[in-house]
Amino acid sequence: MEEKTFQTREFGEVTIRETTYMMNNRKCIMLVSEMGPIATLTTNIIPGSDLEEDELCIKTWSDNEELAVDALESGLFIDTKKRIAAGHAFAEVWKYAPSQG
């Protein structure tokens, strides 16, 4: 995967690092700055959730709220408008923008 970056209000430029969750092998997106790891943008969801292979569950609450806004505004992602229960909240379901995937 080509290295992707975007600007955040709090941390400046961050780099996307992709890995996978061990439980279900879905994509995990970690955000890293020159200071080190910042946050995990995605959240893991239970197996069997109605997700396409290229969809990402994004944590948009709590400490990720502003980072998620910055990520979406970067143009790297699109919001599918789907929502998936993730404990006490609902994760937004995003995809990489067509030119980014």
Task: Give a quick rundown of the structure.
This protein is mainly beta and 101 residues long.
Describe the overall structure.
- The protein has 101 residues and is mostly beta strands.
- The protein has one domain.
- Helix content is 9%, strand content 46%.
- The chain has 1 helix and 7 strands; from the N terminus they run E-E-E-E-E-H-E-E.
- It has a 4-stranded antiparallel β-sheet with strand order 1-2-3-4, with helices on one face. Strands 5-7-6 form a 3-stranded antiparallel β-sheet, covered by helices on one side.
- Strand 2 and strand 3 form a beta hairpin.
- The longest helix is centred in the C-terminal third of the chain and has 9 residues.
- The radius of gyration is 13 Å and the shape is globular.
- The N and C termini lie close together (9 Å).
- The model has no long low-confidence stretch (mean pLDDT 91).
